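ugh ok fine here u go
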Amino acid sequence: MSSEKTADAANNWAPGAQKIDATSIAKPFREEIRTQIQKLKEVGIEAPLLVGLLANSDPAAKKYAEWTGRACKADGIRYELREIDDAIDVENALRDANDDPRVHGIIVYYPIFGQVESFSGESQDDYLRDTVSHKCDVEGLCHEYRSNLYRNKRYVDYPTNSKKCVLPCTALSVVKILESCPSCYDKSKPIGRHMEGQTVTIINRSEIVGRPLAAMLANDGADVYSVDIDSIYLFRGGRLYACDGETPESCVRKSSVVVTGVPTKAYRLPSEWIQPNTTVVNVASFKNVSEDEILQIPGVTYIPMVGKVTVAMLERNLMRLFYNFHHPERQLEERKKRESDAALRPSPWYGNALQVYTAIAATAILAMSLARRK
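structure:
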């Protein structure tokens, strides 16, 4: 982890204040991915193929697609961007990618239907998320992965528990950033308690970032305030509580970690709400805080962007999906298991469909013959 601090900034920032470059946090994850790709190539296995589906003109989505392509190329992952002119064709393109055995991961760049007037409306984006196969969902946003996250279920193959779930990559990037920051995570505590004693405020409740991130940090033991435009909820110990007496200000003031993800240029979190020694993570494509002001707060750790870590988590999720479902050895294991399960099933009294048909036909002929005799 590296901290940005020029000589001029050293004279202006408060004691202990630091601004973290997320590139250094992403670096070890991407190095590990390159190592995995190299090992696959050494045994004659092609690198996984990630397919991106882009059907909008949103600048943030286009930038994310560009980052993804550059990162995949640099790390040896095969990447194919499929641009779709008409949003109505996205579902067919998505199903084609789901069914293509050459494809190991799929990312859909949202928003699609939320941007323009359409028959289906914004809910169609949610439908598309649930249409991505769990075997290809690098974003971890399909129903199976979301459901497992909210139930704190960490494997997709209970009770074998050999295949870890994929987690939403943007929310996961924030977790990895917090793990690298001082005083946020205590790895000496048992799993599920690493953030015990921490209070977190997340100003965003989208299904892509705010909601899964709140669940993930609560699963790690934190008290998490989820702040949306008209409500506040507290995640604590696997339970969700409405907070009628809280305000965004009261939540932020009591928090040691604040995550902002408001997707509008006009929003600014008041700097006076942030307490000394707070970690502030800006997830939005716009700056939701005044950088100059919060770096005047003693001990503040500020992370202005998470994009590069998000792309690293996207690649990490792709590799997990590849080893969970697509690696030749895994596919061989699955085939042997299916054959073994079939061998253990009791054989039916009939041998095959032809025998069933013959028996039915013979019975019908006999019944007709007896009927004529009467």
